[in-house]
Automatic annotation (TrEMBL):
Pfam families: Pro_CA (PF00484). InterPro entries: Beta_CA_cladeB (IPR045066), Carbonic_anhydrase (IPR001765), Carbonic_anhydrase_CS (IPR015892), Carbonic_anhydrase_sf (IPR036874). This is Carbonic anhydrase. Reversible hydration of carbon dioxide. PANTHER family: CARBONIC ANHYDRASE.
Length: 320
């Protein structure tokens, strides 16, 4: 555990996650931002001429510049100034960063039906009706996160775990991917996003519940069921994790309508992912000790139903 935390740079507490911090005094000095009260300008591409106050600071967007007058604590302003000086510098030649702006409940955003405008207006509503109404919650979250559950769900736009389960910010550590699949634990390769998230959730955040949730009409499962070749593209290489579920589906559901086969495979693919979770030594160890529990779920948005089950460890009797 300690070696893993050191590899993450985890030493002491921070405002990011419990156990994460900056121990190196040189690094600590670099990330410390001193309050500043003198006016200064930050280059930006803000498009609105407006003035607002936030956190004791006065912001005035003027053409392509942003003028900031400091107040009680200009930490965020200083951070933003440093950010904008180098942001986008790694973009491919010919691409530039534009329209960089801060949005809050006071920001003027048009409403022409553009999806980005919808996202900004949605945030404005969130800021007014959620964030500003729960100062204690968000003050606590500013100190760190301590979720009790990790959810691994599909990236499908019809599946929103926070909305489905009434979760507030900080309650669940959520990973979304195609077909909510969990790969088996293996050490080859470099880009294991889901495996990295699992390791982080269990060994650092120390969640005590993991839920893998599938859903109806899953495009990833349909791809798994209809394809014969799984190489040559990212989707095929990924969904082949679920091949054991496909094999079982074709064995048990032979002759059944295709949509019934897919429904069965959606749930069995969850079980494949749960089995793969147990290939991670730090998960199996905790499950056997009763410190971690793993669950499967299937959300049927056609019928409006949720199916839930748990995987438990049983001692296998030894016969003489």
């Amino acid at each position: 555990m300690e070696a893993l935390q050191r590899s993450y740079g985890v030493l002491g507490k921070s405002a990011f996650t419990p156990g994460f911090g900056v121990e190196d005094p040189v690094v600590r000095e670099r990330v410390r931002v001193a309050p500043r009260v003198e006016p200064f300008r930050v280059s930006s591409s803000a498009r609105h001429l407006r003035t607002r106050e936030s956190g004791g600071l006065t912001w005035r967007h003027v053409g392509g510049n942003e003028e900031v007058k400091g107040g009680r604590d200009a930490r965020s302003v200083t951070t933003r100034a440093a950010l904008l000086r180098g942001l986008g510098g790694l973009l491919k030649s010919g691409y530039v960063l534009r329209h960089h702006e801060i949005v809050d409940e006071h920001t003027a955003v048009e409403n022409t039906g553009d999806v980005i405008e919808k996202l900004k207006n949605g945030f404005k509503n969130f800021k007014k009706t959620e964030y500003n109404q729960k100062p204690d919650l968000y003050a606590k979250l500013a100190e760190g996160q301590e979720p009790k559950v990790m959810m691994i769900t599909c990236a499908d736009s019809r599946v929103c775990p926070t909305m489905l389960h009434g979760l507030e910010a900080g309650e669940a550590f959520i990973v979304r991917n195609v077909a909510n699949l969990v790969p088996p634990c293996e050490g080859s390769g470099e880009h294991h996003g889901t495996s990295a998230a699992i390791e982080f959730a269990v060994t650092v955040l120390q969640v005590d519940r993991i839920v893998v949730m599938g859903h109806s009409n899953c495009g990833g499962i349909r791809a798994l069921m209809t394809r014969d070749v799984y190489s040559g593209d990212f989707v095929g290489s990924w969904v082949r994790i679920g091949l054991p579920a496909k094999k079982k589906t074709l064995s048990l559901m032979s002759g059944k309508p295709f949509h019934e086969q897919c429904t069965f495979c959606e749930q069995e693919a969850v079980n494949v992912s749960l089995a793969n979770l147990l290939t991670f030594p730090f998960i199996e160890e905790r499950v056997k000790a009763g410190k971690l529990h793993i669950y499967g779920m299937h959300y049927d948005f056609v019928e409006g139903q949720l199916t839930s089950w748990e995987i438990e460890h049983e001692e296998v009797p030894v016969h003489a």
